[in-house]
Amino acid sequence: EDLGVRHRLWVYSGRRGVHCWVCDDAVRKWSSALRAAAVEYLTLVKRPRHAARHRAGSGGRVCVGGAGSAVSAISLDGRPQHREPLQGEFPKKRDSVQRWELLKGRMERTRRAAGAGRSAPCYADWEIMLQYCFPRLDINVSKGVGHLLKSPFSVHPKTGRISVPLDLQRLDQFDPFAVPTISSLCHELDAAGDDGEQEDGGETEPKRRVRDYKKTSLAPYVRVFEQFVEEMERARRGELLRRSGKSQAG
């Protein structure tokens, strides 16, 4: 929103990362300097007064497990009178949900106390979410016009998972461990081929061939990609019509 880009395709890397393909015409023509500046602007963890920090940090929950000591140190600004009791209470909690609720409650009390005094309120819970959960952007990949990029639907060499586009409307349902792998797709295609041979055995009329990927668990991800391309094409046609109308009016 801040940079005015519209056409963004989010693609799971197949392992731990996510790629954002920005396909606006103007962005594709950016120089390396402009690309580097955009990534620097989006690196919120390095910019304490960034306008988007509040938007990025509002809401959400953090898993507080083995990093409890580090989290409590950040959250209470290193003050032992607050940090040490919190570290003692963390092991008593059953899971990360309870630890996060404990931490949020302590932060809220600290915030109210600071607001009543002369010091500035404490918003360390937002800071924790940014420091531990906000994406780390790869500046070299983003600024390098000639940098090699992993294409959507490629296979991750270590996990075997397919690099699939993400449906942002159903992002909460996305499970990276359930993504199709090259092995699972081969099995699905083999099974579909066997079924097709059995069904075609007694038929004489030719049937329209179904594309192979539609017989597999890759089909919904291909549809996400197709919808992205279709939206880009509609926007392109609209822009051409707009320019044509302007030239005729001129």
TrEMBL record:
Acidic residues bias (residue ranges): 191-203
Entries under SUPFAM superfamilies matching the protein: Prim-pol domain
GO biological process: DNA replication, synthesis of primer
Annotated GO MF terms: DNA-directed RNA polymerase activity
Enzyme class: transferase
Catalytic activity: ssDNA + n NTP = ssDNA/pppN(pN)n-1 hybrid + (n-1) diphosphate
InterPro entries: DNA_primase_S
EC nos: 2.7.7.102
Start and end residues of each stretch annotated as Disordered: 191-212
Family stated for the protein in its record: Belongs to the eukaryotic-type primase small subunit family.
Name listed for the protein in its UniProt record: DNA primase AEP
Species the sequence originates in: Pelecanoides urinatrix
Gene field: Prim1
